[in-house]
Amino acid sequence: MRWLVGWSSIAASFGTVGAVGHHGEGRTVHPVGSQLLWGDPDPLWAVGDWRPDEIRIITVATPEGAPTTRLAVLGCCGATDEQLRVGLLAARGGALRHLTAWPGSYTAVVQIGRRITVAGDLAGARPVFHTPWANGTAYATAALPLADLIEAQLDIGHLAALLACPETPEALGDGTPYAGVKRIPPGHALILREGSREITGYEAVASLAVAAAQTDPVSAVEGVRDALVEAVRARLTAPRHAPETLPPDPGPVPGMGPAERRAARGAPVPGIGADLSGGSASATLALLASGLPGLPGTVLGHGTGAGERLLAVTFNDLSTQGREDELERARIIAANPRLHHVVVAAGEEALPYASLESGPLTDEPAPSLVVAERHRRRLAAGSADHFVGHGARQVLDAHPARLADLLMDRRRRHLLRPVAALARAEGPSARSLFVPLAVYRAARRLARTSYRTGLEAAASLLPDANRAAPGLDTPADASLASLAWSRPGPAARWLTGEALAVVSVRLQEAAIRPASVQRPGEARARAALARHAADQRILEQAAEIRSQRLHAPFLDNQVVRAARALPESLRVQPGARAAILRRVLAGAGIHDLPPGWGAPSQATSTAAGRIGLRTALPELIALFDAPLLADAGLIEARVVRKALRAASEGEPLPLDGLAELASTELWLRRLVTRRGTCWTGTAAPRQRAVAGGVVPARRTLQS
């Protein structure tokens, strides 16, 4: 786990490096295992196993006595030193957007005298957190270190909102699971001036009164292509790193080759690699990374390096059926001579909910905790720098609520194809005849519903979410439910009435607060992207392989920006994501794709989740025998145990909701049993986050 941390305080100096506010007189506090990037009066540290090229500091020469002007960029950034210097000068004049326009995934921190600016990203994969502390403000790219710093307790109300409405920013607010630790929204920057805080957005918000100018579809797709190519190129041109020294190879093992033995020891393969699932997103990145033209020193100007082949990893789940077509597409793509194909086969040991007792403590809870072991087995066979296609669906696809945006712009004819596709997905039944009318009416209702009215309606319906009838939604039902300003999450049906009432109050309070209101479809799409990016961040922590870096270019700032320029009429068409990526590859000179490329593959994930739940049922029942979530008043243990047994027997229940409950309970147990703290020094906090390892009682939920 890697993070940066710093603070801004009222005091001009503290006498020693790292001394803090009223903790002066030589007493210091600093993070464990850190390297100091710059010192007092506003220090900044990098913590964790950062590579040398992942930390870049640019300082602008200033006259003697003038304020210090410098920029720290942490992560993978494709900008040159001169571009960083120009961006620093622009940020000094207030143009913060320049700090987020370079290829790659990174966090930028600017210091101009006593003014500190920390820019978050657009998706939310690199968030920024802050908390009041020592007559000033501390900030970090992880919430847990700040929680340790202020000895925070759990915010049970936030956990309730995270389970009840995970894709509703109004319910989550700017909070975190730790009381007192706040998060800045995606697309915003944190500005500190001698301890005072200001949060400002650096992206333009579309008007509700005037329809946004529609970009030409061809130009928009070209923009996505250029952004993806630059994102991949930024990773390919970065210095290569070999895995750190590990225990010696035990020698030949029957049935295991060198790659399998290396994976068993927990070491990635040196070089560049990528997922190759046969789907459109991972295949696009693998093909771009293996055949990107114009890189210096490569054979015929192609490939990832001189004579180097890209390692393409395909995961083969032996416990589920129905992935034969996807595996065959991956095999055809991997026939490319610039790819070295590795198939990782796994059975029950890699199902969801496997090895719940192992795994590190992550910064926050997320549904990906129950599938961490599944991903870890795949990534252990990957490379030191590994591309993943996560985020493509949320960045490129259209949220169903965007149909309302089209009606607001009087583009009714663009609803025909998506509505017809929903009717076909319903199957040959009498109900399918009424799907187009029902979807159109729901979209028109959302287009005519104001932000405040929509949130108030959601708040009034939320307390009854735990009385929802059992059963899984069809595609049409899911789309109809998404045509609203807010909807309950899949875990809401198992929360207590008290927990749902607390979240309902949060929505009511958010409805009357002034807000920068966006169009409903755009707002829902951004919330879904932020939710996925947060889950991706936690997955990287939970499935972390030492010396390995996961790269998700679809979550990069410039790719998200380019995708937002896509016309909504193009997004809502069936198969839009595959069509866009096909044109991206064609623009990069890649035309030969296997039949069926881009076909959806969500059904196999659902099947694996059900099999994994059935296999791990005894462990899950034990997990919810005396759950901490019940102690906090969020669930009733017997209700969840009953749902787990019913789902394992095949009853149509939302498995995503059960995964969220299991992940949150698992994270709570890891949190309260952890040892140590993130800080050291004579003035370090005496207690860690969730001091004493006790979850607040039910009465805390009512506060």
How would you describe this protein?
This protein is of the alpha+beta class and 703 residues long. The strands form four sheets. The protein has a six-stranded antiparallel sheet with strand order 3-4-1-10-9-11, with helices on one face. It has a six-stranded antiparallel sheet with strand order 5-6-7-8-12-13. The chain has a five-stranded parallel sheet with strand order 16-15-14-17-18. The longest helix has 23 residues, at 520-542. Residues 13-27 and 294-303 have low confidence and may be disordered.
Descriptors:
15% strand, alpha+beta, six-stranded antiparallel sheet, 703 residues, single chain, 19 strands, globular
SSE arrangement:
Elements: E1 3-9, E2 30-31, E3 34-38, E4 44-47, E5 55-60, E6 69-77, H1 81-92, E7 104-112, E8 115-119, E9 129-133, E10 136-140, H2 143-150, H3 156-164, H4 169-172, E11 182-183, E12 188-193, E13 196-201, H5 217-236, H6 258-264, E14 269-275, H7 280-291, E15 310-317, H8 324-333, E16 339-346, H9 372-380, E17 383-387, H10 392-396, H11 402-408, H12 416-425, H13 435-447, H14 451-461, H15 475-482, H16 497-512, H17 520-542, E18 549-551, H18 557-564, H19 568-571, H20 576-587, H21 602-615, H22 617-623, H23 628-631, H24 637-648, H25 655-672, E19 679-680, H26 698-701
Parallel strand pairs: 14-15, 14-17, 15-16, 17-18
Antiparallel strand pairs: 1-4, 1-10, 2-19, 3-4, 5-6, 6-7, 7-8, 8-12, 9-10, 9-11, 12-13
Helix pairs in contact: 3-16, 5-18, 5-20, 7-20, 11-13, 11-17, 12-13, 14-16, 21-24
